[in-house]
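thought: fold this chain, then report.
action: predict
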Amino acid sequence: MDEVARLALQWNLTLGERLPGATCSDVFLTDEGTVLKVPHIGSEERDAVWAAQAFSLHGGVEILTTSDPDTDALLMPRLGIDLIAAPVSEHEKIKICAKLILRLRETPLDARAPSLGIWFKEPLADCHPLQPEGWKEATYLLDTAPGAALLHGDLHHQNILLGPQGWTSIDAKGMAGDPAFEPCAYMRNPIGGIPDGEALAKLMVERLRLFAEFLPYEPRRIWGWSFAQTVYCNDSPHSEWAGQQWSLIAEALWDVRREFLN
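observation:
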């Protein structure tokens, strides 16, 4: 019996459709109105199962079972539309994301959470042209960070879904660091066709100003983390599909820096 069949039997599940698009897990709908998620061996999602459990009921999706010790599988309620599909304005989407960030802050810091600093390493000679600036910015932000909070770490549109208790997060990475880091995944993920030049810069400024309005974090720090993380994500081995877009977003964020460095 394979592991998925074993879990279905153990948890009294009738498996339905296997959801496409998941890169780090096998995800199945069930006839019971739940979702079975089985992380791949060695994936970052398997390493972060503890984070899903920590955030459960603090803005994260409710975990209906304890993690299976052999597979780290989780059983969760089925959620509705994500923030991409929400029929609301950009202003309202950012407000939704900001409110969720504040709910997630209620989760106590966990000793298993790695520091944000592990994502930022001194650039190599053949790096993205803006990575030295991203390195300097990340170094400054890490050196001046307030007390660490437990962060979701990847709170973009597709990781925010509508559930019975309102907007809910999924797929937390579980990081420890500056709370002003949290909006950066939303910032670097424009949905649909990416605007060119001036329009993209305008979108970045609009988002930064709205996050600064809805969150108690310094605009300079929200900008800095958004810029630095976008530059570094552009060089990630998992970002082939988004690399070009993220490069353009990093350039747009760099171009508007003077509005947020005061």
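thought: worth noting. The radius of gyration is 19 Å.
final: tokens above.
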